[in-house]
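note to self: dont lose this again. the chain is below, predicted strucutre after it. 401 aa total, dont forget to put it in the shared folder this time
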Amino acid sequence: MDAVFEPWSPAFVADPYPVYARLRAEGRVHWFEPTRQWLVPHHADVSALLRDRRLGRTYLHRFTHEQFGRTAPPAAHEPFHTLNDNGLLDLEAPDHTRIRRLVTKAFTPRTVERLRPVVAELAAGLVADLKKAGGGDLLAEVAEPLPVAVIAEMLGIPASDRALLRPWSADICGMYELNPSEQTAARAVTASVEFSAYLRELIGERRRAPGDDLISALIAAYEEGDRLSEQEMISTCVLLLNAGHEATVNTTANGWWTLFRHPGQLAALRADHGLVSTAVEELMRYDTPLQLFERWVLDDIEIDGTVIPRGSEVALLFGSANHDDAVFTDPGVLDLARKENPHVSFGAGIHYCLGAPLARIELAASFGELLREAPDLRMVAEPQWKDGFVIRGVKELLVEL
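---
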């Protein structure tokens, strides 16, 4: 599949969906030598494997690196791995079960719902500023600041410190791309050290003087005499920021770029704002913000007669699964009123996105506010895609109104 699946090719990143269609037509699983991964393109397989406990985000709860046939990461990368490996996204039971249960106590539906007016107010302010300026970069002026501000508000991070968060997050998330370079790793390590130190100090302040914020709630979270360690709290906060805004940022910017390319659908949305909730789901499906999610094979599995042995890594192609015509009627057609939409953009199984309800509130707020207050919003220039494929988004989206 090397000739068609080219995640480092700008042309592929710009439009991977024809390649996905070929992958689905040619089989259920494909070996990709450059990353030594098995590519899984079909919705049914992606959905099933996300729930299959024979696979894991980590293998270290059962094996050493050597037992699993893998090489330990370089010692210089240790700060990144300490931060990453103690977060919910990369843990398996029993640690994942314990931490998710504790985090869920602090990250309750009531907590999220209480943020709805905050999100609406922040979205209104950002759109008002864009409107006053007559336009600008929708990515930088609306898409990025909204989820960063919401997560910072939720965590209780002072407004004066929030400019630090997005660069740290971007540098850390560089490690989730395929075969990251040593320069990428070095930036991620630096960001991990700085972000961890910042949160360690903030946690210390909240211990001395608790507030009405998620960090204070995490400190207070108990279950059967258990609590989150300081490292688990730090890793959880970083994960909430990274996962909580990377996908939302790209869904917003990619989504508007999609709408501008589909003027009929945009006109329908402008005529009926009641479509916003289904539109958000469809935009996440149509141009998926997280294209690929990896799993380690902990016990041999078989896909369509191909045995994938323990120690292998599978790459679950979310973008392909979301365009599978076995599940979606006319998947290549943007339908903002689509009713049946079982997309996998938030994952599935025990690692299903904890922040999905908040992401939906943020997306509905920003799209709704732009539709109401900037009904003549239009694109100035066709955007370019960032180099990353796994977390896929445009560099900027210049608009005017």
